[in-house]
Amino acid sequence: MEKPKPYDLHSGLGYRLTLAARINQQGFERLLAQIGITRQMWCVLVAVGNMDISLPTEIAKYIGINRTSASRSLRQMAQKGLVERLSKSGDGRTNPITLTDKGRETLEASIPMIHKAQDNLRRRLSLEEQDQLSDLLGKLMQGDTPPVAGI
Fold this sequence. Notes:
Number of helices: 6
Strand content: under 5%
Oligomer: single chain
């Protein structure tokens, strides 16, 4: 029986995909740190402020994270004065979330940052390559994609 070839980490598709995602993520997170938020907090701001999603469970679903992670982010964001829970019941999962003035200002301040991060990606790829990459990533994300602990 022939011995299998050794695995080359740097040529592995999963490794390269993960590394590219981390490079992109770290660049954006450095920008967001300037306004005192994390990437996950930014995703919550987008969900609530731009997409009008207000229930914690729906926010978690939109972002693609589990409810525990969403609850943790919402607590941290409430402590920072970015969001508030509109109390309707004792069950926090059914209490709508809204952005505070500070949350809206922070979301607005993040817009040039996301454009800068997107431009850093786009300048490396032609329009055709961007479309191809988007299609391929969509294919990779099809199917059983469980919520993750953080984004």
